[in-house]
What does this fold into?
Amino acid sequence: MKINEIAKLIERNFPLSLAEPWDHCGIQIGACDEINSVYVALDITPEVADDAISKGVDLIVSHHPVIFEPVDRILKESVVMKLIKAGISVYTTHTPFDIGDGGNNDYFIKNIGLPAGEPLKCTKDGVRGELGRIVVLQEPIGIEEILQRVKQISGTVHAVSGDINRRVRRIGICTGAGAELIEPARLENDCELFITGDIKYHQAQDALAMGLSLIDATHYHMEKSFIKNMAGYLRDNMQAMQEDVKIYESTVNIDPLIIR
It folds into this structure.
């Protein structure tokens, strides 16, 4: 299967047109054109690169870009050079997979047992509400119960702010780093609880002042399901297309921040 065919397959549900202006998605390394095996990873760390090389794969599909900031040199020991030398291509779907139907947000919502959500409304300059979701429940649910559901799939929760005994109906969610949506979640969507990662101290203070409870489920633990989700998407579609491409799921991606 050609790499451009796999790109089109991914972009069928997660088109590059959904990418944020600052994002870098699509084919980032085009070292191999004929793809017989794909390795799905959240991040392309040195450990991921070594694992992919040891498996002899042709393509890595990642959520986070391997090249994000501008580079002025590529050294021989770098991950990018390792992959090029090994003849491994890279395709990245970052914010398109956050925004698109069935991507990170929808998968997380389903995994914690909540009904499907809608894109958050947002008129804040430079912030797209589609990066998050709002779930409106018919009956209120306790934050403590939601917290336990998040713990079951995430393994950890970084922090909770607000009354843990509060019952809520309107829940905002943004996988990854979505603290920029705290204000619109409360003021434009009337959310009572917002779940995201990478929340800063003063952002939590602002949320409390607005009457918005928070769960910081951590960036990694909210998005690690990308691996299973994307691998399943590729397997299902390739099987339907009768394409014989082997799919590997990374087992070496880890959270760089350990909570003890």
About this structure: The chain is about 35% helix and 20% strand. The first strand starts at residue 26 and ends at 29. The chain has two domains: 3-95+222-247, 101-216.
